[in-house]
Design brief:
By secondary structure, this protein is α+β, with helices and mostly antiparallel strands. It folds into 2 domains: 23-283, BirA Bifunctional Protein, domain 2; 289-386, 3-Layer(aba) Sandwich (Rossmann fold). It has 10 helices and 20 strands. It has helices at residues 23-29, 45-64, 78-82, 87-90, 111-121, 164-184, 272-283, 309-321, 335-345, 376-386; strands spanning 4-5, 33-37, 40-43, 68-69, 75-77, 95-99, 102-106, 128-136, 151-159, 189-194, 200-205, 214-219, 225-227, 240-255, 264-271, 300-304, 326-329, 349-353, 359-363, 368-372. A hairpin with a 5-residue loop joins β12 (214-219) and β13 (225-227). α8 (309-321) packs across α10. The structure holds zinc ion. Zinc ion is lined by residues 219, 221-222, 224, 233, 235-236, 238. Residues 57-297 form the Aminoacyl-transfer RNA synthetases class-II family profile domain. InterPro entries: aa-tRNA-synth_II, aa-tRNA-synth_II/BPL/LPL, Anticodon-bd_dom_sf, Pro-tRNA_synthetase. It comes from Kribbella alba. This is Aminoacyl-transfer RNA synthetases class-II family profile domain-containing protein.
Protein backbone atom coordinates (compact mmCIF):
# COMPACT_ATOMS: atom_id res chain seq x y z
CA UNK A 1 0.00 0.00 0.00
CA UNK A 2 1.38 3.42 -1.01
CA UNK A 3 0.85 6.47 1.21
CA UNK A 4 -1.68 8.97 -0.21
CA UNK A 5 -0.65 12.60 -0.68
CA UNK A 6 -2.93 15.44 0.30
CA UNK A 7 -1.77 17.43 -2.72
CA UNK A 8 -3.57 14.93 -5.00
CA UNK A 9 -6.76 14.72 -2.93
CA UNK A 10 -10.01 16.62 -3.49
CA UNK A 11 -10.94 17.53 0.07
CA UNK A 12 -12.89 20.80 0.27
CA UNK A 13 -13.23 21.60 3.98
CA UNK A 14 -15.04 24.69 5.09
CA UNK A 15 -13.60 26.66 8.01
CA UNK A 16 -16.76 28.73 8.45
CA UNK A 17 -18.96 25.91 9.71
CA UNK A 18 -19.31 26.36 13.44
CA UNK A 19 -22.90 25.16 13.85
CA UNK A 20 -22.38 21.54 13.03
CA UNK A 21 -25.21 19.50 14.39
CA UNK A 22 -26.34 16.46 12.46
CA UNK A 23 -24.01 13.86 11.00
CA UNK A 24 -24.86 15.16 7.54
CA UNK A 25 -23.81 18.69 8.58
CA UNK A 26 -20.50 17.35 9.87
CA UNK A 27 -19.86 15.37 6.69
CA UNK A 28 -20.75 18.29 4.41
CA UNK A 29 -18.56 20.83 6.19
CA UNK A 30 -15.65 18.42 6.69
CA UNK A 31 -15.22 17.60 3.00
CA UNK A 32 -16.76 14.07 2.90
CA UNK A 33 -20.11 14.71 1.30
CA UNK A 34 -21.60 16.93 -1.36
CA UNK A 35 -25.23 17.87 -1.88
CA UNK A 36 -26.25 17.24 -5.47
CA UNK A 37 -29.91 18.13 -4.98
CA UNK A 38 -32.49 18.23 -2.19
CA UNK A 39 -32.28 14.77 -0.60
CA UNK A 40 -29.61 13.62 -3.07
CA UNK A 41 -25.98 13.38 -1.99
CA UNK A 42 -22.65 12.40 -3.47
CA UNK A 43 -19.57 11.16 -1.62
CA UNK A 44 -16.27 13.00 -2.08
CA UNK A 45 -13.08 10.89 -2.12
CA UNK A 46 -12.59 10.84 1.65
CA UNK A 47 -16.26 10.03 2.28
CA UNK A 48 -16.11 7.28 -0.31
CA UNK A 49 -13.30 5.67 1.70
CA UNK A 50 -15.58 5.63 4.74
CA UNK A 51 -18.38 4.12 2.62
CA UNK A 52 -15.92 1.47 1.37
CA UNK A 53 -14.97 0.63 4.96
CA UNK A 54 -18.67 0.33 5.91
CA UNK A 55 -19.27 -1.94 2.91
CA UNK A 56 -16.38 -4.11 4.09
CA UNK A 57 -17.79 -4.24 7.61
CA UNK A 58 -21.23 -5.41 6.40
CA UNK A 59 -19.63 -7.97 4.04
CA UNK A 60 -17.52 -9.33 6.89
CA UNK A 61 -20.64 -9.68 9.03
CA UNK A 62 -22.36 -11.56 6.18
CA UNK A 63 -19.39 -13.88 5.62
CA UNK A 64 -19.07 -14.70 9.29
CA UNK A 65 -22.71 -15.83 9.36
CA UNK A 66 -22.39 -17.87 6.15
CA UNK A 67 -24.24 -15.47 3.81
CA UNK A 68 -23.07 -15.31 0.17
CA UNK A 69 -23.20 -12.01 -1.66
CA UNK A 70 -25.25 -11.55 -4.79
CA UNK A 71 -25.69 -8.46 -6.99
CA UNK A 72 -29.24 -7.37 -7.77
CA UNK A 73 -30.28 -4.78 -10.36
CA UNK A 74 -31.41 -1.22 -9.82
CA UNK A 75 -34.29 -1.80 -12.26
CA UNK A 76 -37.12 -4.14 -11.35
CA UNK A 77 -40.00 -5.02 -13.70
CA UNK A 78 -43.26 -3.44 -12.57
CA UNK A 79 -45.10 -6.75 -12.94
CA UNK A 80 -43.06 -8.19 -10.04
CA UNK A 81 -44.47 -5.44 -7.85
CA UNK A 82 -48.00 -5.74 -9.15
CA UNK A 83 -47.96 -9.35 -7.97
CA UNK A 84 -46.76 -8.35 -4.49
CA UNK A 85 -48.87 -7.86 -1.38
CA UNK A 86 -46.89 -4.67 -0.77
CA UNK A 87 -47.73 -2.91 -4.02
CA UNK A 88 -50.67 -1.07 -2.45
CA UNK A 89 -48.83 -0.56 0.85
CA UNK A 90 -45.78 1.15 -0.68
CA UNK A 91 -47.94 3.02 -3.18
CA UNK A 92 -46.33 6.18 -4.45
CA UNK A 93 -43.10 5.55 -2.51
CA UNK A 94 -42.21 3.29 -5.45
CA UNK A 95 -40.38 5.11 -8.22
CA UNK A 96 -41.93 4.03 -11.50
CA UNK A 97 -39.85 4.41 -14.64
CA UNK A 98 -41.41 4.09 -18.06
CA UNK A 99 -38.74 2.79 -20.44
CA UNK A 100 -38.76 1.84 -24.12
CA UNK A 101 -38.72 -1.85 -23.14
CA UNK A 102 -41.61 -1.58 -20.67
CA UNK A 103 -42.59 -0.37 -17.21
CA UNK A 104 -39.99 -0.60 -14.44
CA UNK A 105 -39.51 0.34 -10.81
CA UNK A 106 -36.25 1.62 -9.28
CA UNK A 107 -35.06 -0.61 -6.45
CA UNK A 108 -36.87 0.41 -3.29
CA UNK A 109 -36.34 -2.98 -1.66
CA UNK A 110 -35.25 -6.36 -3.03
CA UNK A 111 -37.51 -8.95 -1.35
CA UNK A 112 -39.85 -9.22 -4.35
CA UNK A 113 -36.95 -9.80 -6.75
CA UNK A 114 -35.15 -12.21 -4.41
CA UNK A 115 -38.34 -14.29 -4.16
CA UNK A 116 -38.76 -14.27 -7.93
CA UNK A 117 -35.13 -15.27 -8.55
CA UNK A 118 -35.22 -18.12 -6.01
CA UNK A 119 -38.53 -19.43 -7.32
CA UNK A 120 -37.14 -19.53 -10.85
CA UNK A 121 -34.14 -21.60 -9.77
CA UNK A 122 -35.97 -24.15 -7.65
CA UNK A 123 -33.98 -25.47 -4.74
CA UNK A 124 -33.41 -22.65 -2.29
CA UNK A 125 -33.90 -24.30 1.11
CA UNK A 126 -31.20 -23.19 3.51
CA UNK A 127 -29.96 -20.38 1.21
CA UNK A 128 -28.35 -17.40 2.93
CA UNK A 129 -27.95 -14.41 0.67
CA UNK A 130 -26.45 -10.99 1.19
CA UNK A 131 -26.63 -7.94 -1.05
CA UNK A 132 -25.49 -4.37 -0.89
CA UNK A 133 -26.99 -1.77 -3.22
CA UNK A 134 -28.45 1.67 -3.67
CA UNK A 135 -32.14 2.16 -3.14
CA UNK A 136 -34.48 4.87 -4.30
CA UNK A 137 -37.45 6.08 -2.31
CA UNK A 138 -39.99 8.39 -3.90
CA UNK A 139 -40.36 10.73 -0.91
CA UNK A 140 -42.16 14.03 -1.24
CA UNK A 141 -40.16 15.53 1.61
CA UNK A 142 -36.68 14.10 2.09
CA UNK A 143 -35.51 15.09 5.56
CA UNK A 144 -32.64 14.91 8.07
CA UNK A 145 -29.95 14.77 5.36
CA UNK A 146 -28.61 11.25 4.90
CA UNK A 147 -31.14 9.85 7.36
CA UNK A 148 -34.08 10.19 4.98
CA UNK A 149 -32.65 10.92 1.54
CA UNK A 150 -34.11 9.98 -1.84
CA UNK A 151 -31.27 7.56 -2.59
CA UNK A 152 -29.42 5.54 0.02
CA UNK A 153 -27.42 2.37 0.38
CA UNK A 154 -28.70 -0.66 2.21
CA UNK A 155 -26.97 -3.89 3.21
CA UNK A 156 -29.47 -6.75 3.26
CA UNK A 157 -29.43 -10.32 4.56
CA UNK A 158 -31.95 -13.01 3.53
CA UNK A 159 -32.10 -16.42 5.17
CA UNK A 160 -34.37 -19.18 3.85
CA UNK A 161 -34.39 -21.29 6.99
CA UNK A 162 -36.26 -24.57 6.84
CA UNK A 163 -38.33 -24.49 10.03
CA UNK A 164 -40.07 -21.96 12.23
CA UNK A 165 -37.62 -22.84 14.96
CA UNK A 166 -34.68 -22.00 12.65
CA UNK A 167 -36.37 -18.75 11.63
CA UNK A 168 -36.79 -17.69 15.25
CA UNK A 169 -33.14 -18.51 15.91
CA UNK A 170 -31.91 -16.57 12.87
CA UNK A 171 -33.96 -13.51 13.85
CA UNK A 172 -32.06 -13.38 17.13
CA UNK A 173 -28.66 -14.07 15.51
CA UNK A 174 -29.06 -11.27 12.95
CA UNK A 175 -30.46 -8.82 15.45
CA UNK A 176 -27.53 -9.45 17.79
CA UNK A 177 -24.91 -9.28 15.01
CA UNK A 178 -26.19 -6.03 13.54
CA UNK A 179 -26.52 -4.38 16.93
CA UNK A 180 -23.00 -5.45 17.90
CA UNK A 181 -21.60 -4.18 14.57
CA UNK A 182 -23.17 -0.79 15.38
CA UNK A 183 -21.88 -0.94 18.96
CA UNK A 184 -18.35 -1.60 17.69
CA UNK A 185 -18.61 1.68 15.79
CA UNK A 186 -19.30 3.43 19.09
CA UNK A 187 -23.10 3.68 18.75
CA UNK A 188 -25.50 2.78 21.58
CA UNK A 189 -28.37 0.63 20.29
CA UNK A 190 -31.89 -0.22 21.48
CA UNK A 191 -34.13 -3.05 20.23
CA UNK A 192 -37.65 -1.87 19.45
CA UNK A 193 -40.35 -4.53 19.14
CA UNK A 194 -43.25 -3.84 16.77
CA UNK A 195 -46.52 -4.87 18.40
CA UNK A 196 -48.42 -5.11 15.13
CA UNK A 197 -45.70 -7.39 13.74
CA UNK A 198 -44.09 -9.45 16.44
CA UNK A 199 -41.54 -10.83 13.95
CA UNK A 200 -40.18 -7.32 13.28
CA UNK A 201 -37.52 -5.71 15.46
CA UNK A 202 -35.89 -2.36 14.79
CA UNK A 203 -32.42 -1.46 16.01
CA UNK A 204 -32.61 2.19 17.03
CA UNK A 205 -29.67 4.53 17.62
CA UNK A 206 -30.01 7.76 19.56
CA UNK A 207 -29.09 10.94 17.74
CA UNK A 208 -27.12 13.55 19.69
CA UNK A 209 -28.46 16.19 17.29
CA UNK A 210 -31.97 14.99 18.11
CA UNK A 211 -32.85 13.67 14.66
CA UNK A 212 -36.32 12.24 15.26
CA UNK A 213 -36.86 9.87 12.37
CA UNK A 214 -38.25 6.92 14.36
CA UNK A 215 -40.56 7.17 17.39
CA UNK A 216 -41.22 4.46 19.94
CA UNK A 217 -42.42 3.86 23.53
CA UNK A 218 -40.44 2.78 26.58
CA UNK A 219 -42.29 1.56 29.68
CA UNK A 220 -41.02 3.30 32.83
CA UNK A 221 -42.05 0.20 34.81
CA UNK A 222 -40.90 -2.94 32.99
CA UNK A 223 -38.68 -1.17 30.33
CA UNK A 224 -40.61 -2.88 27.48
CA UNK A 225 -39.55 -0.96 24.35
CA UNK A 226 -41.96 -1.06 21.44
CA UNK A 227 -43.94 0.58 18.70
CA UNK A 228 -46.46 2.21 18.35
CA UNK A 229 -46.53 5.23 20.64
CA UNK A 230 -48.74 4.40 23.65
CA UNK A 231 -49.18 6.00 27.07
CA UNK A 232 -49.91 2.75 28.90
CA UNK A 233 -47.68 -0.33 28.75
CA UNK A 234 -49.51 -3.30 27.22
CA UNK A 235 -47.37 -5.68 29.31
CA UNK A 236 -47.52 -4.26 32.85
CA UNK A 237 -49.94 -1.31 32.66
CA UNK A 238 -47.13 1.06 33.63
CA UNK A 239 -46.61 4.54 32.20
CA UNK A 240 -44.75 4.80 28.90
CA UNK A 241 -42.53 7.56 27.62
CA UNK A 242 -42.38 8.23 23.92
CA UNK A 243 -38.89 8.76 22.61
CA UNK A 244 -37.35 9.22 19.18
CA UNK A 245 -34.17 8.09 17.49
CA UNK A 246 -32.94 6.83 14.13
CA UNK A 247 -33.66 3.31 12.90
CA UNK A 248 -30.23 2.06 11.83
CA UNK A 249 -31.24 -1.54 11.10
CA UNK A 250 -34.22 -3.87 11.15
CA UNK A 251 -34.69 -7.63 11.30
CA UNK A 252 -37.91 -9.34 10.23
CA UNK A 253 -39.59 -12.57 9.15
CA UNK A 254 -41.68 -12.37 6.01
CA UNK A 255 -44.21 -14.62 4.32
CA UNK A 256 -43.26 -14.92 0.66
CA UNK A 257 -45.76 -14.14 -2.07
CA UNK A 258 -46.09 -15.27 -5.68
CA UNK A 259 -44.15 -18.38 -6.64
CA UNK A 260 -42.68 -18.82 -3.15
CA UNK A 261 -46.06 -18.57 -1.42
CA UNK A 262 -46.20 -20.77 1.65
CA UNK A 263 -42.57 -20.10 2.65
CA UNK A 264 -41.40 -17.77 5.38
CA UNK A 265 -37.91 -16.35 5.55
CA UNK A 266 -35.80 -13.96 7.56
CA UNK A 267 -34.63 -10.61 6.25
CA UNK A 268 -32.49 -7.86 7.73
CA UNK A 269 -31.31 -4.49 6.53
CA UNK A 270 -28.72 -1.98 7.71
CA UNK A 271 -28.60 1.58 6.37
CA UNK A 272 -25.00 2.22 5.29
CA UNK A 273 -25.15 6.01 4.76
CA UNK A 274 -27.42 6.50 7.74
CA UNK A 275 -24.96 4.64 9.97
CA UNK A 276 -22.02 6.74 8.76
CA UNK A 277 -24.03 9.87 9.53
CA UNK A 278 -24.84 8.56 13.03
CA UNK A 279 -21.17 7.74 13.71
CA UNK A 280 -20.05 11.20 12.53
CA UNK A 281 -22.63 12.88 14.74
CA UNK A 282 -22.41 10.73 17.87
CA UNK A 283 -18.63 10.47 18.03
CA UNK A 284 -17.77 14.07 17.10
CA UNK A 285 -16.43 15.84 20.16
CA UNK A 286 -17.77 19.33 19.45
CA UNK A 287 -14.80 20.61 17.50
CA UNK A 288 -13.75 17.67 15.39
CA UNK A 289 -14.89 14.40 13.88
CA UNK A 290 -13.66 11.22 15.59
CA UNK A 291 -13.73 8.10 13.39
CA UNK A 292 -13.46 4.64 14.92
CA UNK A 293 -10.63 2.55 13.45
CA UNK A 294 -13.10 0.26 11.62
CA UNK A 295 -14.36 2.96 9.23
CA UNK A 296 -11.76 5.75 9.35
CA UNK A 297 -10.66 7.07 5.93
CA UNK A 298 -6.98 6.74 6.93
CA UNK A 299 -5.33 5.16 9.97
CA UNK A 300 -2.56 7.75 10.07
CA UNK A 301 -2.39 11.40 9.06
CA UNK A 302 1.07 12.96 8.85
CA UNK A 303 1.36 16.71 9.15
CA UNK A 304 4.75 17.82 7.97
CA UNK A 305 6.41 21.13 8.80
CA UNK A 306 9.67 22.54 7.44
CA UNK A 307 12.57 20.04 7.66
CA UNK A 308 10.28 17.04 8.31
CA UNK A 309 10.04 15.74 4.74
CA UNK A 310 12.76 13.07 4.85
CA UNK A 311 11.81 11.58 8.20
CA UNK A 312 8.08 11.63 7.40
CA UNK A 313 8.68 9.67 4.17
CA UNK A 314 10.59 7.01 6.13
CA UNK A 315 7.86 6.73 8.77
CA UNK A 316 5.16 6.59 6.07
CA UNK A 317 6.93 3.72 4.28
CA UNK A 318 7.35 1.82 7.55
CA UNK A 319 3.67 2.17 8.52
CA UNK A 320 2.39 1.38 5.02
CA UNK A 321 4.52 -1.77 4.95
CA UNK A 322 2.93 -2.76 8.28
CA UNK A 323 -0.50 -2.59 6.57
CA UNK A 324 -1.71 0.79 7.82
CA UNK A 325 -3.32 3.35 5.53
CA UNK A 326 -1.32 6.59 5.60
CA UNK A 327 -1.88 10.07 4.23
CA UNK A 328 0.90 12.71 4.16
CA UNK A 329 0.00 16.39 4.15
CA UNK A 330 2.59 17.52 1.62
CA UNK A 331 0.78 20.74 0.62
CA UNK A 332 2.74 24.00 0.71
CA UNK A 333 0.29 25.54 3.18
CA UNK A 334 0.52 27.17 6.58
CA UNK A 335 0.81 24.75 9.50
CA UNK A 336 -2.41 26.14 11.02
CA UNK A 337 -4.40 25.27 7.92
CA UNK A 338 -3.01 21.73 7.96
CA UNK A 339 -3.96 21.34 11.62
CA UNK A 340 -7.50 22.52 10.83
CA UNK A 341 -7.86 20.01 8.00
CA UNK A 342 -6.47 17.30 10.28
CA UNK A 343 -9.52 17.80 12.50
CA UNK A 344 -11.76 17.14 9.50
CA UNK A 345 -9.82 14.06 8.43
CA UNK A 346 -9.91 12.81 12.02
CA UNK A 347 -7.40 9.99 11.66
CA UNK A 348 -7.11 7.82 14.78
CA UNK A 349 -3.36 8.63 14.80
CA UNK A 350 -1.90 12.00 13.82
CA UNK A 351 1.85 12.41 13.52
CA UNK A 352 3.10 15.98 13.52
CA UNK A 353 6.65 16.59 12.32
CA UNK A 354 7.54 19.81 14.08
CA UNK A 355 9.99 22.39 12.69
CA UNK A 356 12.37 21.75 15.65
CA UNK A 357 12.83 18.10 14.63
CA UNK A 358 10.67 16.58 17.36
CA UNK A 359 7.71 14.39 16.46
CA UNK A 360 4.34 14.57 18.21
CA UNK A 361 2.07 11.51 18.09
CA UNK A 362 -1.59 12.18 18.85
CA UNK A 363 -3.56 9.07 19.72
CA UNK A 364 -7.10 10.31 18.99
CA UNK A 365 -8.74 7.10 20.22
CA UNK A 366 -7.33 7.45 23.74
CA UNK A 367 -6.90 11.23 23.54
CA UNK A 368 -3.21 11.01 24.42
CA UNK A 369 -0.22 12.91 23.01
CA UNK A 370 3.41 11.72 23.04
CA UNK A 371 6.46 13.67 21.87
CA UNK A 372 9.56 11.77 20.73
CA UNK A 373 12.98 12.88 19.50
CA UNK A 374 13.59 9.62 17.58
CA UNK A 375 11.97 6.25 16.84
CA UNK A 376 8.70 7.78 15.65
CA UNK A 377 7.83 4.81 13.41
CA UNK A 378 8.13 2.27 16.23
CA UNK A 379 6.16 4.50 18.61
CA UNK A 380 3.42 4.88 15.96
CA UNK A 381 3.14 1.12 15.42
CA UNK A 382 2.77 0.58 19.17
CA UNK A 383 -0.05 3.15 19.38
CA UNK A 384 -1.88 1.65 16.39
CA UNK A 385 -1.63 -1.83 17.90
CA UNK A 386 -3.21 -0.56 21.12
CA UNK A 387 -6.09 1.04 19.26
ZN1 LIG B 1 -44.34 -2.19 31.28
Amino acid sequence: MQPTRWSTLFFPTSSGATHKKTGTDWLLSSGYLTRVDRGVYGWLPLGQRVVGAMDHLTRTTAERLGYSEMGLPLLQPLVVWEASDRYEQLGDLLTRVPMKAGEYVLNSTQEEVVEMVLASHGNFAGARLFQLSDRVRNELRPAHGLTRSLTFKLAEWYCFAESNEAIRKELVVLRTELASALERLGLATTYVQHRERLDLTSVAVTSTADVRQFRYSICTGCTYTFRPELEVCPQCGGRCEVTAAVEAADVFARAAVGALRGHRYVGAGLGVYRTISLVAENLANGIRLCWPRAICPFDVNMIVGDNGAVESEQVARHLSAAGHSVIIDDRPLRFGRKLFDAKCLAAPLEIIFKPDGRVELNDRVHDKATVVAGGAAEAAVRILEEQ
